[in-house]
Amino acid sequence: MLTEEIKHEIEAEAERFERKQAACIEALRIVQMHRRWVDDESVRDIASVLDMSPDEVDSVATFYNLIYRHPVGRHVIRVCASVSCWLLGYERLLDHLIQRLGIAVGETTADGRFTLLLNQCLGACDHAPALMIDQDQYQDLDVANVEAVLEHYQ
Amino acid sequence: MSERPLTANIRSNAPPLTVAEYEEAGGYQALRKALTTLAPAEVTKLIKEANLRGRGGAGFPTGVKWGFVPMGADAPRPKYLVVNADEMEPGTFKDRLLLEGDPHLMVESMILSAYAIEAEIAYIFLRGEYVLAGKRVGQAIDEARARGYLGRNILGTGYSLQIYMHMSAGRYICGEETALLNSLEGKRAIPRAKPPFPQTSGLFGKPTIVNNVETLCNVPHIVNRGVEWFKKLSRTKNGGTKLYGVSGKVKKPGVWELPMGTTAREILEEHAGGMRDGLQLRGIIPGGASTEFLFEEHLDLMMDFDTVQQAGSRLGTGTMIVLDDRTCPVGMVHNLTKFFAHESCGWCTPCREGLPWLERILKALEDGKGATGDLEEIRTHVKFLGPGLTYCPLAPGAMAPLGSALNRWRDDFEKHIRERRCPWR
Amino acid sequence: MATIYVDNKPYVVNEGRNLLQVCLSLGFNLPYFCWHPALGSVGACRQCAVKQFKDEKDKRGKIVMACMTPAAEGVRIAVDDEEARQFRETVIEWLMANHPHDCPVCDEGGECHLQDMTVMTGHNYRKYRFPKRTYQNQYLGPFINHEMNRCIQCYRCVRFYQDYAGGQDLGVFAAHDRVYFGRHKDGVLENEFSGNLVELCPTGVFTDKTLKGHYTRAWDLQTAPSVCVHCGVGCNTTPGERYGLLRRIHNRFNHDVNGYFLCDRGRYGYEFVNGERRVRTPLLKRDGALGPVTRAEALTEIGKVLSGPAVLLGIGSPRASIESNFALRELVGPDRFYDGVSARERQLLSAMLSTLRAPGVHSPSLREVGEADAVFVLGENLAEVAPMIALQVRQAVYRSTVPMGERLGIPAWHDSAIREAIQGRHGPLYLATVTGDKLADVATRSWCAAPDDLARLGFAVAHCIDPTAPSVSDLSEELPGLAKEIAGALRSAQRPLIVSGPSCGSLAVVQAAANVAISLSAAGAQHAALCYDAPECNSFGPALLDGHGLDEALQAAKSGSVYAAIVLENDLYRRADRAAVDAFLEGAEQVVVIDHTVHDTTKRADVVLPAATFAEGDGTLVNNEGRAQRFVQVFKAQGDVQESWRWLGELSRTAPSNGAWQNLDHICTRIAETAPALGEIARVAPAATARFLAQRIPRQAHRYSGRTAIGAHVNVHEPALPEDPDSPMAFSMEGFPSTCSSALTSAYWAPGWNSVQALNKFQAEVGGPLRVGNAGVRLWEVAEGHDHKYFEVIPPAFQSREKEHLAVPLHHIFGSEELSVLSPSVAERAPASYVAVNFRDAEALQITDGENVQLVLDGIPYRLPVRILPDLPSGVVGLPSGLPEMSWVKLPGWGKIVKEVPA
Ligand SMILES: Cc1cc2nc3c(=O)[nH]c(=O)nc-3n(C[C@H](O)[C@H](O)[C@H](O)COP(=O)(O)O)c2cc1C
Ligand code: SF4
Ligand code: FES
To answer: Which of B12, B204, B255, B335 to mutate to test the interface with A (most CBs of A within 10 A)?
Structure first.
């Protein structure tokens, strides 16, 4: 069940479009903001708020990179994997994170603290390599300074 | 130093101007001027005369584009202006500077441009990752509304506009303007066929203009300072300034507003500080990931739309990516191809199936598992994923760096096969 | 018209088309996937590439997608261009990269468009050397099997399912090379046209699950042209048989009727033919029990009565062919021929027939339904009673918006661009039904009311259109506005259409619809049309034979006369009150039932003769528009099974009667002589003696296997081929694979084209009518003038009653029809019985959803669970119509709901 709060937020978004179905992506983002990921029940609930079928909502949800249809940890690390970061050695940074967290890309640590994902270009090419944790971006990273960054996220 | 209208208000490591500060710096004067003294069509005329060309990658003349929008009382309503702030092209980080650095310039530009096409609603389609930009632009919108620059009856002129922000859920193809419209409609971001063009049938089937962030940010300045001034900003026929960027192993990567037509060498050496010590330049991709490599011999070319095109590449977004001599070109195009394969929307066959195939061949080369015939296969793909053969320009864009790399560095590719390893590892 | 140049030769083509459609129509073998004649172009697969040249001098040219390029004047293209050819081959290579290459174990094998196109492009050897992607398949219900690994992402399935058929539970998920076509979660595909995915999917992703239950290769199927028997629309079908078992139904293209599609009832209802309840030998009642006897014994037994003193009553059937009904009439004489439907239905059918045959009223073909530009549906839940009409109404409301797109310069065939431009807007559609309708998502307005109130709305609309039409007094508040709005929409349309029918059991509704049609014609509308759906596959056939009502026959029991009865393909317990039927059957000297399936009436018969189903015999059916269509025997049934008209012919030879026919042509000639309304019947299909290049038309494909070995386990000698005295077709693979007559064509094949899409090669223009014309003959055409009189009796407004509710029938696509529900797959989709009540009534009665109540109708109590239906009008309850476990109830009728007191 969507909370009243979530429902109101979605409905407010829906008003800004000619057709309320256009708020589908907004709705998915809102649910994810509150619940970290979008489960099947939420897909159905969004569908009923926006007069869509669950299939229509899920067709959109599964299209986009930033909508998570699987559970994620308390914090999501998104390592930029695009070309400038590649040139500056993001792969070393990633290998380090994989070792350090003991998980592969796409997985969540056993304690539910981190999910590790790759992201396309974060637009920080002049400060590569870069990554995001949740809503925060970090730049000019290397194996040495990434540790301190992780510390902020428990 | 030459004039830098787009970035004049941007101070590094300081918050952007508030609405009051922006006004003090001359902000919202252009808007006032246009709304009180110019008819919408006159604004479009100015932009047309200034020959402002789109900064989103294709360089299409903005005024011409606006000129296709049906105007007057019987035009379909509402009309829409959409700012393309999706900036997801690898190696591109210029719009972010404007959005984070001077959000009020963005807002003023939107209102003015919307006025030119008599749009009632404007959307800003913002990358989901640009959280800070989202906050700042959101705040600027609120401030502008509070000052009467936005909403009903702006500055008492009778013109009304709403601006809404849409944070993207993330897909490179959303940057393609018609896919962007589908995404704004809450759908899968599949590109649309053209014709019909968005100018006549766009968002929700209504007339719509989609422009890049940097493109629009020029508009208030043109209105304020005039066409001649704008043309003189540049060193070439393509008027204005341009945000140029450099990333890769240079001493001082970054983004700078420079006269349009600044040479690659000047950008690289004077602004980016040249290659890191001990490294040689092997090639540059001049404007984001989907442009062809240029080489040493091109460095003295003026970086404008026409010149770069004549050299066999495209200015694209103007943010160049530098390849040095210690980095494997095959590895670099592998990384790029992986990006494009992942970001294919999945609609048309060549892109959906061809890019992953290419990605696997390139990976095999890198892993020392290349086979004879692989290079021929890459060639065929480069040819048949070319312009006009796919549904939209994503896949042809992907072929630009790959095709030009294979042409230039065929030996390096062959060496991977011959030696059954990547010689750079 | 425009002149275009293909491979340097000029061709005059239709300039409203795209180059793919034009090239295919000209006979070029141009491969394609995402395009479909009924779905238009989207340019996704990139398979149909050709080279386009600017002018004569242009030698380089550029590759374009034929399906996305208009066939404009002077266009120059090359199909035979090396670069374009290579590109097409590469596209196939991409599509095949991840394909499992599992053709030998794939149900689509041998009739696969992907196979054909692969061969066509010349892609032989794969170069892709990396792992293939794999997917999980889904459970999609009893009709469709899912095998996602075979998918080539042509997007046809979702385009048909969502855009064309209005379904919402099939979609495309994920992106890049992981796109997935299926449901959000495993589950039954709900849309009533899901079965078409089997034919639309160019490979083996969606295949027929019922075929899988008794699989055989497509080329091993014996087929004949047939007509669906599961509703009154008369869609053309191709049933396929092997080893005496009917294996599947495919669509048979008829441009005027069903086009490319069938509904799921029609596609999956066929399994009653193989059912356990089939009658395969004559049965005779001895010592109170029916047991098998020889045909001689059975005929002798009947003969005794035929020559005796008993008056012989013949009860016909709307699900038996015209020939069988006629043979019965001949045997018993016109005075004692009863048409076998309830009194109420009979009244409705004759009102419908007389209106449709009156001057000025056009009865549209199904195709014309899809071309209407304003539609008013009165009384019918089309998706449940005549789904294919609903499908065409859906097309009508879409198509009438296409000009909006065309004004933006988008050609009508450019499906995705048109849809983006019109943004889900739709043409005028007004629904007035007893309960909520599936077309509501595309309706301008929907209105639910009791049948009498629906009729009053219809009468009011007619009056708004033509003030001389009778007016309706004291309409309730909302109605005058609604009537005016509907009238306005119909008046301003070029091709207005009224759809109505008998399904809510109201004569007033049928008459009100007639008045609307008449008023339009009176007001000068040139192309107004009135479409009535008919409940059964031959509802209009017996009605045209001027029989008497079934209820009159049942009276015989009371009259004390000595009578015997022959019941033709009819379960009387589905037509009339149980006690009355009991009395009638008990009172008869002898009851002979000729039918193919055991039911309550056969159980009470003295003699049962095994009748052929549509698949095992020949005959003619008249559909809802008045089109007579022939179905041809697909296979010879085992045992004594034969057409009812043959049995009746044999009987008449033992009796002093004039039925001297030996075959179908004889009987058709006789019908034409004696029943003027059916004068055209002999023209419906070529005579049995017709030959094509001196040959018969084979029922078997040229690859049919086992011709000499198929019966080797019984006898190693090659058996003689069965004779076919009734049609020019042979039970053989030899002959002239004729497409000379669409009435005799069941399968299309052309070199390189083994899938259903071989049809292209037989259409004058791809997507248009067959070169040899469309099958079927219309028994009447609209006559000039409009001297038809208005119906004057307008019912008073519906008044709900204090303690009673008006029970109305609610129809179900799966369950309400007698034969299809005998198919296990259809039965799985049928609802359990229930009584539907609206919210307010449920509250007043203090009953809740799912709770059991007693509904007392005509003094008989029915114990039923409650189903809350919010759209149902107050004071009205709904009963599912025709479910096997519900016996006949006279509906509409007043009944009482009694809350069950827990014991
Ligand atoms: C695959 C693809 C991605 C694109 N991404 C962007 C983008 O992120 N930002 C942008 O402004 N334009 C992008 N474009 C270009 C737009 O389609 C469009 O041309 C541009 O927004 C028009 O604005 P302009 O005329 O101001 O340049 C992209 C194009 C393609 C084909
Ligand atoms: S080239 Fe084709 S699959 Fe690729 S993004 Fe464009 S439309 Fe989608
Ligand atoms: S049939 Fe033309 S692109 Fe698919």
So the answer is: B335
CA dist., res. C867 & res. A148, Å (int): 62
User: Of B291, B324, B357, which residue sits at a domain end?
Assistant: B324
What domain range is B336 assigned to?
A: 329-419
> Which structure tokens are listed for C550?
């079934």
CATH of domain A4-63: 1.10.10
> What is the length of chain A?
154
DSSP letter, residue B351? I
C2-80: CATH topology: Ubiquitin-like (UB roll) (3.10.20)
Which residue among B337, B348, B389 is best mutated to probe the pocket of ligand 2, counting the most ligand atoms within 8 A of its Cβ?
Answer: B348
C848-866 pLDDT, tens per residue? 999 999 999 988 889 999 9
Amino acid present at C81 = D
**How far off is chain A from B91, nearest CA to CA, in Å?**
6
State which residue of chain C sits closest to A69, comparing Cα positions: C174
Question: Are C383 and C442 contacting, i.e. CB atoms less than 8 angstroms apart?
Answer: no
Q: Is residue B275 part of a domain?
A: yes
Residue C788 pLDDT: 77
d(CA C383, CA C191): 10
> Least CB-CB distance to B196: which of C47, C95, C409?
C409
Lowest mean pLDDT across A113-117, C489-493, C890-894: C890-894
> Does residue B301 share a domain with residue B348?
no
- In terms of Cα–Cα distance, which of C164, C532, C604, C608 is closest to C363? C532
- On whether both B48 and B71 belong to a single domain, the answer is yes
Subunits that touch chain B (at least 3 Cβ pairs < 8 angstroms)?
A: A, C
Pairing of strands C563-568, C591-595: parallel
- Is domain C355-532 classified as CATH 3.10.50? no
**Residue C435, SS3 per DSSP:** coil
CATH number at C805-899:
2.40.40.20
* Stretch C820-824: mean pLDDT: 97
Q: For residue A17, give the chain B residue with the closest CA.
A: B185
Cβ-proximal residues to C260 (8 Å cutoff; 6+ apart), any chain:
C36, C37, C38, C196, C199, C251, C253
Instruction: Please tell me the distance between residue B174's alpha carbon and the centre of ligand 2 in angstroms.
Output: 11
Q: Using an 8 Å CB-CB cutoff, list chain B residues near C152.
A: 349
Taking each continuous run of H as one helix and of E as one strand, the counts in chain B are: 19, 8
User: Under DSSP, is residue C491 helix (H, G, I), strand (E, B) or coil?
Assistant: helix
Q: Structural domain tally of chain B?
A: 3
Q: Could you tell me where the DSSP H helices lie in C216-261?
A: none
Structural domain boundaries in chain C: 2-80, 355-532, 805-899
Q: C-chain residues within 8 Å CB-CB of B366?
A: none
Whether the predicted model's global pTM rises above the 0.95 cut = yes
Domain with CATH 1.10.10 in chain A: 4-63
CATH number of A75-151: 3.40.30.10
pLDDT tens column, B309-334: 999 999 999 999 999 999 999 999 99
Query: Which of B79, B92, B93 best tests the A interface by mutation, with the highest count of A CBs <10 A?
Result: B93
Q: Are A85 and A130 in contact (CB under 8 A)?
A: yes
Evaluate whether A87 touches B321 at the Cβ level (below 8 Å).
yes
Whether residue B78 has a cis bond before it, omega within 30° of 0: yes
How far, in Å, is the centroid of ligand 3 from the Cα of B349? 10
Q: Which ligand is nearest to the CA of B218?
A: 1
- The conformational region for residue B118 under phi > 0 = left, psi -120 to 50 = alpha, else beta, is left
Q: Are C604 and C263 in contact (CB under 8 A)?
A: no
Which position has the token pair 């293939």?
C132
- The H-assigned helical ranges of B87-148 are 95-101, 103-116, 131-146
Pocket test for ligand 2, best of B88, B178, B392 (most atoms within 8 A of CB): B392
Q: What is the CATH number of the domain that holds B341?
A: 1.20.1440.230
